[in-house]
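HUMAN: Now follow token order:
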Amino acid sequence: MKHPIVFAALLALSTSAQAFDLGDLIKEATGKGEPGSSETTPPAATSTTPAASGNSAAVNALSSTEINGGLKEALSRGADAAVAQLGVKDGFFGNPSMKILLPKNLQKAEKTLRKLGMGKQTDALVLSMNRAAEAAVPEAKTLLVGAVKAMTLEDAKGILTGGKTSATDFFRSKTEAQLTERFGPIVKATTDKVGLAQQYNRYAGMAAQFNLVDKQQASVEQYVTQQALDRLYTLIGEKEAAIRANPLQAGSDLLKKVFGAMLGK
């Protein structure tokens, strides 16, 4: 066994797009009742609807085209901004909140490796993991834009009436499988250049068989790919939430009009 010390350290750790009327959807979400219905929403129900604080008259004045375009623009902007922020040098490594570290179960082994004089090798592995993520993220742009263009009625409902993670959930459900396939080879090509990454794959794979590490952490490429996607989707959600909260700062007349109406601004 070429590196028994490393081995011991690691093992010691325990439908297609469809047309829909977003105008009616927004009005329903803001407490206006079913489209075309003569019934009105009871005051109590209106007061508990998160979007009901918007200006009802302003929302009603919006056309379906405006609402459709506003929502899609917000999502597209969020995706573009997230890819632009992460898909560059130090997009991950230089940002403490985005930096990818070794799995928690292996951080004890990291301390052991450093004590054994392998700090440089460990640093090189962590750097390569982040550089791999930075190299892979630009691959996401085309798929994310495609997901917005193919948005369905159910997608829109989930985003408009969902919680803080609605945008994250939408993009994850539509693109995660394909992005995992695309990210994997890019991540592997980068991390394979680091010798310790190959040791990680060999020994973490063995450790996973004994449930000492999660199976998704059994190889560097699997772990980094999942970590990169988690951060990308979360950042998209944060970007979209910022636009929703401050539409007047969004820089687009359409976004100001649509989300401003929903917020009563």
Observations:
- Residues 1-23, 32-53 have pLDDT under 50 and may be disordered.
- Residues 111 and 119 are 9 Å apart (CA to CA).
- The chain has one domain: 4-20+65-263.
